[in-house]
Design a protein that fits this description.
The protein has 134 residues and is α+β, with helices and mostly antiparallel strands. The protein folds into 2 domains: 3-94, no CATH class; 97-134. Helix content is 40%, strand content 36%. It is built from 3 helices and 4 strands; from the N terminus they run ααββββα. The protein has helices spanning 7-21, 24-27, 100-133; strands at residues 32-33, 39-57, 65-85, 88-93. Strands 1-2-3-4 form a 4-stranded antiparallel sheet, with helices on one face. Strand 1 (32-33) and strand 2 (39-57) form a beta hairpin. The longest helix has 34 residues, at 100-133. It is rod-shaped. The termini are far apart.
Length: 134
């Protein structure tokens, strides 16, 4: 049997390709910084599996025959977001049973409050600067 067709090599190549697809940034995403100082970090669950198999086939010639194959699957599921604001960290979980639109709808009131706070701070700062200019 040739070394480049062994089950070990097939499994090694499969694992190498899985490592290329899934890294630490897949699980803990890139931080997203907002203007108000809030940092949002997406958190995901990654599951993967693989299988491989093969067989040496009897041959009548000098060349040895080998049959083998492998397969793999990866599942990435968003779990929630780590929100860091003013030194306080909070995990906003997405329910496993809820659909993505429902999870987003659950977060909307808090997002609206944050946006309203941003605008009110901006408006107050503008009013203060107009008062100083008079």
């Amino acid at each position: 049997m040739k070394d480049n067709h062994t089950i070990g090599n097939i499994m090694g190549i499969t694992m190498e390709k899985l490592k290329e697809m899934v890294d630490v940034n897949t699980i803990v995403g890139e931080p997203i910084s907002l203007q108000d100082g809030t940092t949002i970090i997406p958190i995901s669950k990654v599951s993967f599996g693989f299988a491989s198999g093969g067989s040496d086939l009897p041959s009548k010639s000098q060349n040895e025959l080998f049959g083998g194959g492998s397969g793999a699957g990866v599942s990435i599921q968003p779990l929630g977001f780590m929100v860091v604001y003013k030194g306080e960290a909070k995990l906003m979980q997405m329910s496993v049973n809820a659909s993505t639109p429902n999870a987003v709808a659950t977060m909307v009131p808090e997002i609206i409050d944050k946006v309203a706070d941003m605008f009110s701070k901006g408006k107050k700062g503008k009013e203060d600067s107009e008062t100083e200019n008079q």
